[in-house]
Amino acid sequence: MASFQDRLSRTWNIEITVFELKKVKDEFQLDLAECASADNRLFARLSTDTVLLVDVLSCLLEDQIKQLGLNDRQFAQGIVGVGITHAIEALVEAIVNFSQPREGQLMRAMWNKLESTKELATVRVLGQMDEIDVNKLVTEHIDEALKSLPRKSGG
User: Fold this and answer.
1) Residue range 134-151, pLDDT digits in tens
2) N or C: the chain end with fewer CB closer than 10 Å?
3) What is the DSSP string of 52-116?
4) Sign (positive/negative) of CA torsion 63, 82, 15, 99?
5) pTM of the predicted model, to two decimals?
6) In the chain, where are the structural domains located?
7) 3-class SS of residue 73
8) Phi/psi class of residue 152: alpha, beta or left (left: φ > 0; alpha: ψ in -120 to 50)?
C-alpha cells in the first residue's frame, strides 16, 4: 500500500485493486492499468493536471475522505504545493504495486525518466534566467505589436 502526507499533515493510503481501476475508468475514462504502454502519457498528464490528479485521488480515497468527514473542497486543500508531489508519487507507487512485476518495473522506469526530464528542464531554464535581457525582450515585442496596430487616418 502506498501512502502520502498532504500539506495539512493528513496521511492518505492508496491501494489499487480491480475495483478502484474500474471506478476510475468509469468516472474519468482513464485506465490506470495501461500506464506501462509505451505511448501512454497518463503519468505526465496526472503530474501536470492538478485538477485531474485531485479528482482521481478523491475517487480512490473516497472512503477515507468520508471517514474524516471532509468534503471535496476540504480534501483538495491539502493537495497543494508539496502535497501534489507526495500525492502523485504515492499514486504511481500504488499503480506499480498493483501491476505485474515486469509492468511495474517498466512503469517505475517511465516515471523516473519523466521526473528526470522535468528536473533537467527546470535546471536548464533556471540557469538561463540571468542571461535573459528582459528590457530588450519587452521592447522588441512592444515594437512589433505597435507596428501591427491600425493608424489613424489623416483628419
Assistant:
1) 788 888 888 888 888 888
2) C
3) HHHHHHHHHTHHHHHHTT--HHHHHTTSSTHHHHHHHHHHHHHHHHHS-HHHHHHHHHHHHHHHH
4) positive
5) 0.69
6) 2-125
7) helix
8) beta
Question: CA-CA distance, 120 to 108, in Å (whole number)?
Answer: 18
Cα separation of 14 and 91, whole Å? 7
Partners of 4 in the β-ladder: 12
Three-state DSSP state, 77:
coil
Three-class SS state of 12? strand
CB 32 within 8 A of CB 21: yes
Q: Which of 115, 120, 91 is nearest to 2 (CA)?
A: 91
**27-61 confidence digits (pLDDT tens):** 999 888 776 555 567 877 888 899 999 999 999 99
What's the pLDDT tens digit per position in 68-109? Answer: 999 999 999 999 988 898 999 999 899 888 887 777 777 777
Identify the three-state secondary structure at position 97.
Answer: helix
